[in-house]
Amino acid sequence: MTAPFTAIGGTGTSDKLDIVILGLSITSSWGNGHATTYRALAKALHAGGHSVTFLERDAPWYAGNRDLPEPPYCRAILYRSVAELADMYGTLVRNADLVVIGSFVAEGIAVARWVRAEARGCLAFYDIDTPATLAALERDACEYLDRALIPTFDLYLSFTGGPTLARLEGELGARAARPLYCSVDPDNHGPAASDAMDLRRWDLGYMGTYSADRQPALQALLVEPARRVSAGRFVVAGAMYPETLEWPSNVERIVHVAPNNHRAFYGAQRLTLNLTRADMMRAGHSPSVRIFEAAACGTPIISDVWPGLETFLRPGEEILLARGPEDVLHYLTALDPDQLECIGQRARERVLAEHTAAHRARELVAHACEASLRRARAGA
Question: Is 295 part of any domain?
Fold first, then answer.
C-alpha cells in the first residue's frame, strides 16, 4: 500500500494526487450521462493540480460518436478487453494514489477484481446509478458489481445520498459510503446571451434519454400540456425514443444535444422539465445533472417530486414542483417573466455556491484522504 496522502483540495496543502478512473465513457456523451459527470470532475481535478488518467472500454456504440476523443484535462486511454487492460496498464494502477471504478463499466466485476489485486493506493467505487445498482444486486443480476466486492472498496461514492448511504454500509458492508453527487461546470453553463423571456424558442423543454419508467411522467408533464396549449412550443431532446411514439405537432424532437450545446438548449427555454427514474425517485436524494446544468444557466425548472429534493433546491423559491399537467399549465400561464427570472436566478446562485465540479473535486479528494488515513491506522 502506498503511504497515506493528506491532500484536501482547497486547504493549501501541496500534495497532488495521481488518479486513475475506469469509467463507462469520457470520450462520448452519446446516450449516456456519465461522460458529462466525468468530464466536469476530471477538469476540476486537473485545475486543482491533480493528474487524471481515464481508462475507457472501446465500445462500438461510442466509437462512432466520440465528441471529445482527447480531453485536454486528462489522459484518455481506450482498451479493448480486460486482458489488454491487465497486460498494459497494471503499473499505472499500482502507482496511482487513488483508483476509481465507475458503475456500468463493461465486465465491471472482472475489472474490479483485477484492480483490487493491483492497486496499492485508495480504491473507490463510483456509483452513478446507485438505485439501479441496488435493484440489480437484489435480483443477483448486476453485471458490473457483486456483493462480495463492496466491502473491499475503501470508498463507496454514490450519486444518491440520504438513507441509501446507511443501507450501503449496514446491509452491504461498504466501509465508507459517501455522497458524490453530479455537478455542473460553470465555464460551460451560464445564462444565455439574452435573458428576455419573449425571445425564448420553446415554452417548455426536456432533455433525457428514453426510459420506459420516465415516459409516463413525460407524457403527463410535457406531452399533455402540449396537447392542451396548441399555440405553445415544446421540445424533447434525447436518444432511443421508440419510433412508434406519437408526438403532438407542437413538440419538436431532437435526437442528441452535445454537451457544448447544453447551455444554448437551456437558454432557449422559458422553463425546463426535470424527470426522475422510478428507482431514483424511490431512493430519493438523487439529483440529476439536468437540474444543476439548467439552474446554472438560470432557466427555471419544473421537476417531478421526490424525497430529498428540498435539500438541493427550495421548492417554490428555487424550483417548481409538478404532480400533474395542471401544475405545469399553471406555471406556463400564470407566472410572469419576472417571477420566472427570480426563480431561475435563485437556483443559479444556490448551485454555484454548492454544486459545481470544483466542489465535487474537493469532496472526492477529502473522502479519499479520509479513507487513506483510515487504512493507515488499521494497518498500524
Answer: yes
Summarize pLDDT for 160-185 with one digit per residue, the tens. 999 999 999 999 999 999 999 999 99
pLDDT digits (tens, 9 = 90+) for 38-49: 999 999 999 999
Do both 228 and 207 map to the same domain? yes
End-to-end CA distance of the chain: 12
Question: Residue 7 pLDDT > 50, yes or no?
Answer: no
The verdict on 280 and 338 lying in the same domain is yes
Average pLDDT over residues 20-34: 91
Quick one: 367 and 289 in the same domain? no
Q: Is residue 81 located within the same domain as residue 219?
A: no
Residue whose entry in the numeric block shows the C-alpha cell 425548472: 301
Q: Which domain holds residue 126?
A: 18-183+357-379
Residues 161 and 56 in one domain: yes
Which residues partner with 252 through β-bridges? 235
Q: What is the pLDDT of residues 231-276, one digit of tens each?
A: 999 999 999 999 999 999 999 999 989 888 999 999 999 999 999 9
Reading the block at residue 16, the C-alpha cell is 497532488
How many domains, the chain?
Answer: 2
**Lookup: cell for 355:** 454544486
CATH of the domain at 224: 3.40.50.2000
The model carries a pTM of 0.90
Q: How far apart are CA 63 and CA 79, in angstroms?
A: 12
- Cβ contact 204:228 at 8 Å: no
Same-domain pairing of 310 and 246: yes
